[in-house]
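From the shared-data thread, chain only:
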Amino acid sequence: MTKKITQASAFQQRPQDTITQIKAISLHQPWAELITLGLKHYETRSWPTNYRGKLVICAAKKNTKEQQSSYSALACSLGIDLTLHPWDSLPLGMAIAVCDLTDCIEMTPNFIKEQSGESPSLEGYE
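Structure, as tokens:
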């Protein structure tokens, strides 16, 4: 029996693959891309999670001038070459990476202050 696939996906499944459930989280660009580049290590949310393990990073479809401006400023401060990684090259509305969620840390003022020395330009909230 053949099943009809009704939803497009960036991941293709071979017949011998085992179907595994995996959680996903959506982030607006440029934040999603910064995770794939290894430049963003924390994501802030208003809710905690007990989940640990593989997590799909999805780039949301939203595309605003404010996001583009944020990306330009971040690219400048982080040394991202905009001729190699222009805004128009960032994926939107799709899964772009898989990472490991290893911890859930409460965002206390002290924690935020400790991280500020690492890269103040990445302190934005999603």
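The helical segments are 31-36, 65-78, 109-116.
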